[in-house]
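Appendix B. Raw example, untouched.
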Amino acid sequence: MYNSKIAGLGHYLPEKVITNDDLSQLMDTNDEWIVERTGINERRHIKKGSGDGTATMGVKASEMALKNAGIEASDIDLIVFATLSPDYYFPGSGVLVQELMGIGTCPAIDIRNQCSGFIYGVSVADQFIKTGMYKNVLVIGSENVSGGLDMSTRGRTVSVIFGDGAGAVVMTRETDLSKGILSTHLHSEGKHAAELSMIGPNTNHWIPELIDKNDPEDLSYYPYMNGQLVFKNAVTRFSEVINEGLNKNKWQASDIDMLVPHQANLRISQFIQRRFGLEDHQVYNNIMKYGNTTAASIPIALSEAVQEKAIKEGDKVVLAAFGSGFTWGSAIIQW
């Protein structure tokens, strides 16, 4: 019998910093408007010609995670790669990481659950480890969204939020069943799929010769978000799935040493913090610096929190995410 545990963490952010003032040069917005609605001061965007991409950023985060775990790339038995911005329509980015890192012929699974992708990936890895099928699993969240954003006033409600980056963890066996990943909890509700989505390109609407920004169908090539509905559902589902994990493990909210929420919007994180009666030191937020990096946001935040010693051995840690699909999930960890 095994639990799984996180043995090493890593993260990578592109060097190019985009401030709110930078965005105000491209669209009708300003620092006050963005901070009030999102809490974001700046984000990172990939610089053209830098060589950064979804897979290559994932490699950089993974190399850091492997070093911290004290293992080699050849020790990895399974790659789980979460992203909404793969390098190609197909194949997925997992096999690209495999080739770049020289990992061999282990399986690679790509997870398409957007902001909840890392939690889903952790859950998949956890099950494979608990069954004894694999020992060392590399779970990556990496996003290159900046190139696909509508950087005009029309797209500002979405484009000011998102940033690029990658985070990774090495998960391995834990023989002490009181430690490691104690439980994961996953949900989805497809009836709201269109409310946070990028519909095109798709198999019914491939790349047009020229995108007409006045054609509603062609606007589907940019991300769309029904902000009010997403916020309303997010605060509800975050609370439900955190409580589900606490109840499963007979924890109280007061037992939480660190909550690492998906960095969707600082206002959502603050709402959840108040609802659970947590102090600032019990919730880790870095959205102010990086924006919403989708599937990468939790592993980046988790890696930074451990690096800063905000999470230490013996801590009770909760991860939670909500995003497109709608999908949501949580992971309960005895660190």
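End of appendix B.
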